[in-house]
Design brief:
Layout lengths: L4 H15 L3 H5 L6 H15 L1 H11 L9 H16 L4 H16 L2 H15 L7 H8 L4 H11 L1 H10 L7 E4 L9 E2 L6 E3 L7 E3 L2 H9 L7 E4 L6 H10 L4 E6 L2 H13 L6 E3 L12 E7 L14 H4 L4 H19 E11 L8 H4 L3 E3 L7 E3 L2 E4 L1 H4 L4 E7 L1
Helix pairs in contact: 1-3, 1-5, 3-5, 4-5, 4-7, 5-6, 5-7, 6-7, 8-9, 9-10, 11-12
Bound molecules: S-adenosylmethionine.
The site of S-adenosylmethionine (SAM) has 18 residues, from α12.
Length: about 400
């Protein structure tokens, strides 16, 4: 890395906040050396606590935050996270931020940057009482806190949000016959490992995603449709479960995602038919598949540990918007299943609208044998329950 970690982190933060980049994708190429780890900590920490950080900065700065150049503001945000919420040395945070600010924006900004950060360092932070304070502490908008609290009560909401603030470790699925390296098996989810370094036959994915493949109870000879398949993690799992007998068709509505998933799988010598198709209008006759996997597009609230920016991209209507598409996809998926077969409905979120409510009243039941807990007519894995991403899984019959 040529630039200093704080310079790299500020650039990445700007791309996530203003250009819609995904932090996990953007930071994936960084190494596991100390500089790479520092950049990740700075970007993820700042993204998690952005609202609280901006509140501290607004108190400390002599001008409104929207009057500060965005790139300079990002440097100040990162340093504020380090000073108030991180675990680094305060003088390094201030000195580095000011040095990078000088290189990028010239000498005149150094006095301002220094003054703001010294004031951040000294400031007393008083979190408001009640829901507003809780949502700042737990780093989600008040409506998210409220929505979960209504469904789960205070204790579980806090447990979920607190666990969602802890970065996810390295995890994956060991392909049959492959070497898992130093990864430890994840209890109750065969094939999933955590920790590392992992071996070459390990596909990076969260254990909760491995659980979805297991819930499908795919056996050799079956015909399977993966209706929302890109980037292909669960398709690969189905391929392994079929052991060379049976068929899997991988479909996704987005051509670009299909192209990159197909080439990724081909690099691993996994060749399956990929089609670009909107799951609401699938190009198949009814009742032809033993299983349809509907790993639904969703708000992604269950993946906050890996994509902390998600919290800033949602609005109170997001879960309902998502649910409308999910219901249509599920209705369509159910038409494609043979008698005796089922749809595996999964979503990496925990909002009731996108999970229990979608399958409510249908012939749906939780999968058996997985860690987690029952949630309505489905099953929930989540950081506070299983140390995994949040994932809802339900087996739905036509
Ligand atoms: C959660 S991701 C799937 C992840 C994938 N199953 C895996 O394990 O790698 C949801 C996918 O749904 C796709 N999608 C969104 N709307 C869709 C639609 N109407 N029909 C089919 N796929 C859709 C998105 O392009 C996205 O790839």
């Amino acid at each position: 890395m040529n630039d200093s970690p704080r310079a790299v982190a500020a650039t990445a933060l700007g791309r996530v906040l203003r250009e819609g980049a995904y932090s996990n994708v953007l930071l994936a190429p960084l190494g596991d050396d100390p500089d790479g780890r520092l950049v990740r900590r700075l970007v993820y920490g700042t993204l998690r606590h952005l609202v609280r950080i901006d509140r501290l900065l607004a108190q400390a700065a002599s001008r409104p935050l929207d009057a500060i150049q965005p790139g300079l503001l990002d440097l100040l945000r990162i340093a504020t996270w380090e000073l108030r919420l991180g675990d680094g040395a305060p003088h390094a945070a201030v000195n580095e931020a000011v040095t990078v600010a000088e290189t990028r924006f010239g000498k005149p900004v150094t006095g301002f940057a220094n003054a703001v950060l010294r004031s951040v360092q000294r400031a007393e932070e008083r979190l408001p009482a009640g829901e507003e304070g809780a949502s700042l502490e737990l780093a989600v908008a008040p409506w998210i806190y409220r929505r979960l609290q209504t469904a789960w009560g205070d204790e579980e909401t806090r447990a979920f949000l607190t666990a969602s603030l802890v970065p996810a470790g390295r995890t994956g699925r060991v392909r049959p016959g492959a070497d898992g390296g130093a990864g430890e098996p994840v209890a109750g989810i065969p094939g999933a490992i955590a920790g590392g370094p992992v071996g070459p036959g390990v596909l990076p994915m969260d254990p909760a995603s491995v659980a979805v493949g297991l819930a499908a109870e795919v056996t050799p000879g079956m015909s399977v449709l993966d209706m929302a398949a890109a980037p292909g993690g669960k398709t690969m799992h189905v391929v392994d479960l079929l052991e060379g007998r049976g068929t899997v068709v991988a479909a996704d509505a987005h051509a670009r995602r299909v192209r990159s998933a197909r080439s990724r799988l081909e690099q691993l010598d996994v060749v399956v038919p990929w089609i670009v198709a909107d799951g609401r209008r699938p190009p198949f006759p009814p009742a032809v598949f033993d299983r349809v996997l509907l790993d639904a597009p969703c708000t992604g609230l269950g993946t906050l540990r890996r994509r902390p920016e998600i919290r800033h991209r949602l609005d109170p209507e997001s879960p309902d918007r998502s649910a409308e598409l999910q219901r249509q996809l599920l209705a369509s998926a159910l038409r494609l299943v043979k008698p005796g077969g089922f749809v595996v409905y999964s979503a990496c979120t925990v909002f009731p609208e996108e999970t229990v409510d979608v399958v409510d009243g249908l012939a749906a039941e939780p999968p058996r044998g997985l860690p987690g807990r029952v949630a309505g007519q489905g099953w929930l894995l989540a950081p506070h329950l299983t140390g995994t991403d949040g994932m809802f899984i339900s087996l739905v019959r036509p």
